[in-house]
């Protein structure tokens, strides 16, 4: 014991001696780190576990991950991986064991033997550079050519003649199309006339061009067109139906948001692609100077003074419009007022202002040229790899073939939607009529839902009669009316429940009356009093006199609609009155709406209410009969109210904390433990108002309890209604939701039907029409350089409960062609895992990487199962949270997701689960002292390992030392979690001085490079998502090299689809499999791993299909397509081919 004490004393003395200059002696301590004993994870060599019946080329790595076969490895990786240190391998094995991964519990795959195409270079990295350079070089040279030139002078006068006119110094001449190889183009459309192009301007280094539509050239009157015909479009490569002899020559067309201009070009609708490519200056700007959603909001708030912290990025970024981009790069904005003619004007206005509008269009072309001159050098510098430019050009050639089935789809979806809409409206209208009867004896005052509605009515005031005779007539008419009313009530209102003599006598009386009024004169005499009353009616009559105000709002006046019908026909599920008409209750309490708080419910706590003036009274007695009363400790509530901070100067965080604390304590005092959100509001001193829980957390208010987020509450009996009408209306709403949200976009798709001579010979006599949609794809539409498009790139898969959700399946290849495509399996997870494993250069060396590469859902060893087990949540919920975390979401976001998945979960439980999940996955954040400061901290148990401190310890030590944390400590890292290595790598990329993607070295937007430590989550998200954009560009370039006959159609999420002739479908499928292999091998080698796991080398399946559905065997049954694709449209199942199937087909 004495020797141990002397040893500790010696250590303290050494520590004091080394730290005396840095810390006060009273604060000097020895910080020890616990050591973790580990056992050897491998008791025997892994190679001894080699499975039976494997090929001679079978390979596994040091953590039992099956790698590509020796046959493939030797063709792909010319330079072998440097031997990894045994200590690194041992560390990886121990890490996997600590997180419960048994690396021997694994299923091996069958090896693939294939002869790959010869690489275009010494290795896979050089291969992609060479093929990318070959594809983009001609277009890049054209871009440089036109950006470096001076534009020719503008024409003094534009000719108003149909088609293209070329303007040079020698004069103007009509041409079929601009023959130049490089053009800057701008197309203008008169919006009130439809989607047909009205006029266009283009410029090349040698000449200006103007295009005028036929209606404009012929001075036609204004007409609106619902369709766009092929002959209405602008030719760029053809003279009528005669094509240029050299359609494959490289040509470039530049524009700002050029995908819109591309959709107005004739040749872009052909089945066979030409050599024209489109370059978008807006996408280039997004790559170079794109902004976050917060930055976009700041830039839009032009009248507000920006925060000083925003000054660093506001000068180097802007919004995406041409005028904003021109101002950013060229220093001056451009005038866009003339554009209003195209937005709001008619064809007559275009006739009158033709010269000014042509100058305006030419001005946009010149502005685009100015932007290109400044932007192109910056873009090429920040995105140096040729694959980036080649991939963007390929992505901008998207193409969707359709046929007459498209029209059937629109009609079917519209019909079913209108039917359900009508039935839903009838149910709600009948409920409104039923509730309206509560006016009798003012029964609404005791109704738990309708008591606070506006029950005021309008009265029908009769004219005052000027003379006595009229007065007498009115009196007689009134008496007659009263008499008739009494008679009617006696004869009509009476009902009989059984057959009796009295019932037979009533029928005889009715027959006797009818016999007396057999002719028109008798009827006229009988109802003369009604004609007399007409003289007393006012000229302007109130609408629905005698009906309550809330009901009148649901009705339309006759005359406004040709199909008008009486009743509450304006009612929808989005109206505030609807939940009350359906008698919704939350946990048995009637729901209630307060404007400032949104939807909630009333919970009684007292059997007496406060007096109110001119305010509807809560039907407390009725409420107490239905709902239990909570007993409130009023003194406790009042005491809690006094705890709120009262000074405005106090920190907002403290105020928010105490306000929340008060509400939570008040809820506890009132003994309410349900799902409602306490907001501290009392109604008339007898009821608490609690807000309905919002999916995004307690600070948000619910705008509609009939929204889709509350559908599962009905099945859980948390939300209930009187009768089954509510669930029926909600079911209809769920079925209509997709079509309601996407209806205008889908119906607004510009479908162009091809003329018969442009179709393949076999289709020219076919009864069906064939055409195409050119989607408006912005090739770099987001900060992460992901492509964007409002309809197709966000299209979901067919859902049996959603009208119109079979949208994707209506993109159908013409006979003789097939779609070939695949879904990149877990693309972003694999990219994140690869980046994490790159630290140790061992595939599967981290728990996260191992679960992605070798995890098995059936064995519950995949990534989502590991997370679910750690946080005790369902696997599908863990999957969502995993992706959110990789995208940069924090613990608070995970808490909200857990609450969304399980609303019955308490806040404390959600916090606990989220904290446990993050500590298991992300680990803990530690700070390591720099070498020059760590000499005074001696711990024999640490050995050579660096000393680690928590954030609090690091801050305290730095404060005591009079230094900043980053001066004393290295960049903080994550340790101990399954994903620690991955997050360390992502942060290393995101926080570097010039962040660039790991694969193609694409740079982060300038607006975020100057972030000053802000937007950390966005930068992390960029590191993964932008790498995924690189991955897509690599695939597109590889496919263009391996399958030149394939035409790129579209990329959905992580899917790619190509259109190919039937005879090339299997060769294209093989090219797609090899493309995946090459792309992943390139990515691995770029991060220092010269190898590739077998599990990600090939697609699980390649889909060869006639339509654009996700999987070739989906029937796509929906309410608008109840019979499925085969019976509804005659579309059979396609083929889903593994790599072995493809190799067999290609023999």
Give the SSE map.
Layout: H1 2-19, E1 59-60, E2 66-67, H2 70-76, H3 86-98, H4 124-148, E3 163-168, E4 171-175, E5 182-189, E6 197-203, E7 208-212, H5 214-217, E8 238-239, E9 242-243, E10 251-255, H6 258-262, E11 276-280, H7 281-289, H8 293-300, H9 311-314, H10 322-330, H11 340-344, H12 347-352, H13 354-382, H14 386-395, E12 400-403, H15 405-436, H16 468-491, H17 501-516, H18 520-526, H19 528-534, H20 549-552, H21 578-581, E13 585-586, E14 589-594, E15 598-604, H22 620-626, H23 634-642, H24 652-669, E16 677-683, E17 687-691, H25 711-715, E18 719-720, H26 725-747, E19 751-753, E20 770-773, E21 817-823, H27 827-837, H28 847-854, H29 863-871, H30 875-886, H31 891-901, H32 907-921, E22 924-928, E23 948-949, H33 951-961, H34 965-968, E24 973-975, H35 980-990, H36 1006-1009, H37 1016-1042, E25 1047-1052, E26 1055-1061, H38 1065-1086, E27 1102-1105, H39 1124-1129, E28 1135-1137, H40 1139-1145
Parallel strand pairs: 5-10, 10-11
Antiparallel strand pairs: 1-2, 3-4, 3-7, 5-6, 6-7, 8-9, 12-20, 13-14, 13-18, 14-15, 15-17, 16-17, 19-20, 21-26, 21-27, 22-23, 22-24, 25-26, 27-28
